[in-house]
């Protein structure tokens, strides 16, 4: 198994980029030679740019984000609008180029695990091909148990190893947010790694996010297990 991890989510907008940037910065603070990647982006390349900034690497954006489509849609819908399709080979070439330069790769997906990349391929297929373990980012609030368990089922179907589930967002004040971590753990053997409560400064300051992650012992343990020699 390659050193690194794939950050996926239960949906779009759950905070994959925030988590990816925070993890990349945390690994860097540990002295890890960390590389980053956003294989596929639609709408804009802001996520890839944030990853580059958070990790401090000096790479062309076309290596970090080899597949970009202008329409803010699922790749299977965005690519045909440009007379194109998702080119998996270009993703693999960019990944192997980066993985030779960096000891650990932090790879951020697009949307959730069942977002279609083509007629019969999904994000889960990309994760399987890259042979990386997953951190699943889930919403903190009501409805997340269903989305999270369905996502874990899709990953299990592909036999993709999951380091754990990280809840993101929310204030921690609602009953659902307070009970979701324990309730989820009752229904899966996958480790719940903790919860990151919403703070506006996280969005533009991966160093602050990294500091918050260091206070989540189960996440730290999982990262060290996956990313350190």
Features:
8 strands, globular, six-stranded parallel β-sheet, single chain, two-stranded parallel ribbon, alpha/beta, 19% strand, 229 residues
Describe this protein's structure.
By secondary structure, the chain is an alpha/beta fold. The protein has helices at residues 16-29, 46-55, 61-64, 75-78, 88-101, 123-130, 144-157, 175-185, 206-213, 217-227; strands spanning 4-9, 34-37, 40-42, 67-69, 104-112, 134-139, 162-168, 192-196. The strands form 2 sheets. A 6-stranded parallel sheet has the order 2-5-1-6-7-8, sandwiched between helices. A two-stranded parallel ribbon has the order 3-4. Helix 7 links the parallel strand 6 and strand 7 (162-168). Helix 1 (16-29) packs parallel to helix 2 (46-55). The longest helix has 14 residues, at 16-29. The protein is globular and about 45 Å long. The chain starts with a strand and ends with a helix. 48% of the residues are buried. The mean pLDDT is 95.
Summarize the structure.
The chain has helices at residues 16-29, 46-55, 61-64, 75-78, 88-101, 123-130, 144-157, 175-185, 206-213, 217-227; strands at 4-9, 34-37, 40-42, 67-69, 104-112, 134-139, 162-168, 192-196.
What's the helix and strand layout?
Layout: E1 4-9, H1 16-29, E2 34-37, E3 40-42, H2 46-55, H3 61-64, E4 67-69, H4 75-78, H5 88-101, E5 104-112, H6 123-130, E6 134-139, H7 144-157, E7 162-168, H8 175-185, E8 192-196, H9 206-213, H10 217-227
Parallel strand pairs: 1-5, 1-6, 2-5, 3-4, 6-7, 7-8
Helix pairs in contact: 1-2, 1-9
């Amino acid at each position: 198994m390659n050193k690194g991890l794939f950050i996926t989510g239960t949906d779009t907008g759950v905070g994959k980029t925030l988590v990816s940037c925070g993890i990349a910065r945390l690994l860097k603070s540990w002295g890890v030679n960390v590389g980053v990647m956003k294989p596929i982006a639609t709408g804009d390349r802001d996520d890839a740019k944030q990853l580059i900034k958070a990790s401090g690497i000096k790479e062309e954006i076309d290596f970090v984000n080899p597949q970009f489509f202008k329409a803010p849609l699922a790749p299977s819908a965005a690519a045909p609008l440009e007379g194109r399709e998702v080119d998996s080979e270009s993703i693999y070439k960019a990944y192997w180029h980066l993985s030779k330069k960096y000891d650990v790769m932090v790879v951020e997906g697009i949307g959730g695990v069942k977002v279609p990349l083509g007629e019969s391929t999904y994000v889960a297929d990309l994760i399987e091909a890259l042979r990386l373990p997953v951190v699943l980012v889930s919403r903190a609030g009501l409805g997340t148990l269903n989305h999270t368990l369905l996502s874990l089922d899709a990953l299990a179907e592909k036999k993709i190893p999951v380091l754990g589930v990280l809840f993101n967002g929310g204030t921690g004040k609602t009953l659902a947010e307070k009970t979701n971590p324990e309730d989820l753990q009752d229904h899966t053997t996958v480790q719940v790694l903790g919860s990151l409560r919403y703070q506006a400064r996280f969005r533009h300051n991966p160093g602050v996010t990294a500091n918050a992650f260091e206070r989540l012992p189960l996440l730290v343990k999982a990262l060290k297990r996956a990313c350190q020699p």
